[in-house]
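ok new one. same drill as before - structure tokens go in, u give me an amino acid for every spot. 386 of them this time. try not to just spam alanines like last time pls lmao
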């Protein structure tokens, strides 16, 4: 190893200072480039509709509001993108020159850059080749081609199958048949914090109940006791695999493997091979775990089924579900000492929080209050069910 001489920095500093002193920095106006077209479309024979998303490349002309809550009917804008509207978007089976035109979704009078082709207009079939043709209002043309992975002989559409899983002790084992023209297989589990997804070149896969989600900060569990979590195994074409295994350099824009011509993005296809509805539970050990019952002000019965994360951390995570009358909702929360905090969800994601409960655990009761975004529902007392 060579040790730098102590005079090196000082020797260079003097001429550098002189150089800067003799320079006068000017301003240069950089012309913003013309926005390009970004496409994201994955054909799925089992889907009720095929969805094509179009947006503009971001070139600094428009201020982006990245604080919006994501909604699936307006995915481009609410994910921080710029929707590309009024395009002629068509899916064309091999040999068809006209194709089926997609309809743009409109939400509250806003065009969204989300284009759909319902199954009634075009039934996407395994083993068949399809083309995408996009003509924007500005005249740009983007095209792509994909061949949907072939179904095995006699294989029906994958129907969901119930799969019980005890998180602390069980392993979920999956197996499926080989699809000869698939580039890769993918396993996806939906979680309240976002999906867990992994590629596999094998036709067998095992998921431990204690698996952690390395796609989410903090490495939370993939499986949440009290939740029924959808799982799917797919066969994917080469376009889908290449796009998702590549990355994009935010400065140079290189590295992304695009499968469309005239723009950038993905036009690929998948075939669902396995579906599981994973009903997650766990061994109950902590005092807060169990079933708790109470009633609303109107007298309707309310029950809470809770599980606690087995961790020595000061604030342990809670999950479960709440049933009020005939309505059942998932809950997520934490316990710190005797204080219990729960978020009640209208959907599956943490982003679907509709109300918050804060209470205190004391023996066989949890007493506290619910507060919604607008007001408080008042006090609630839950008693441990026998």
């Amino acid at each position: 190893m060579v040790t730098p001489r102590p005079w090196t920095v000082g020797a260079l500093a003097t001429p550098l200072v002189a150089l800067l002193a003799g320079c006068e920095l000017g301003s240069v106006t950089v012309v913003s480039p013309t926005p390009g077209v970004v496409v994201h479309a994955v054909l799925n024979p089992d889907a009720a509709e095929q969805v094509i998303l179009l947006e503009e490349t971001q070139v600094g002309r428009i201020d982006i509001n990245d604080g919006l809550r994501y909604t699936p009917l307006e995915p481009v804008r609410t994910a921080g993108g710029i929707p590309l509207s009024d395009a002629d978007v068509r899916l064309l089976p091999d040999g068809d020159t006209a194709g089926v035109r997609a309809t743009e979704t409109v939400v509250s009078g806003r065009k969204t850059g989300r284009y759909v082709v319902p199954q009634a207009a075009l039934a996407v079939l395994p083993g068949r080749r399809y083309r995408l043709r996009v003509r924007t209002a500005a005249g740009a043309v983007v095209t792509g081609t994909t061949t949907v992975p072939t179904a095995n002989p006699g294989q029906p559409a994958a129907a969901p199958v119930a799969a019980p899983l005890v998180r602390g002790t069980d392993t979920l084992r999956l197996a499926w048949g080989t699809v000869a023209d698939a580039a890769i297989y993918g396993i996806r589990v939906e979680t309240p914090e976002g999906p867990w997804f992994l590629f596999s070149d094998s036709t067998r896969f095992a998921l431990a109940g204690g698996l952690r989600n390395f796609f989410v900060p903090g490495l939370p569990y993939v499986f949440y006791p009290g939740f029924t979590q959808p799982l799917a195994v797919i066969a994917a074409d080469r376009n889908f695999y290449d796009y998702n295994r590549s990355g994009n350099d935010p400065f140079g824009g290189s590295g992304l493997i695009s499968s469309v011509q005239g723009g950038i993005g993905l036009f690929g296809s998948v075939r669902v091979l396995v579906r599981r509805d994973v009903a997650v539970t766990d061994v109950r050990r902590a005092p807060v775990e169990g079933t708790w019952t109470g009633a609303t002000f109107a007298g309707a019965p309310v029950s809470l089924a809770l599980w606690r994360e087995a961790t020595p951390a000061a604030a342990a995570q809670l999950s479960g579900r709440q049933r009020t009358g005939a309505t059942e909702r998932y809950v997520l929360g934490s316990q710190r000492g005797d204080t219990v905090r729960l978020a009640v969800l209208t959907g599956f994601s943490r982003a679907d929080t509709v109300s918050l409960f804060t209470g205190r655990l004391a023996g066989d009761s949890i007493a506290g209050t619910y507060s919604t975004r607008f007001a408080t529902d008042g006090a609630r007392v839950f008693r441990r069910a026998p």
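Helices lie at 8-21, 75-78, 238-245. and btw Confidence is low (pLDDT under 50) at residues 1-21.
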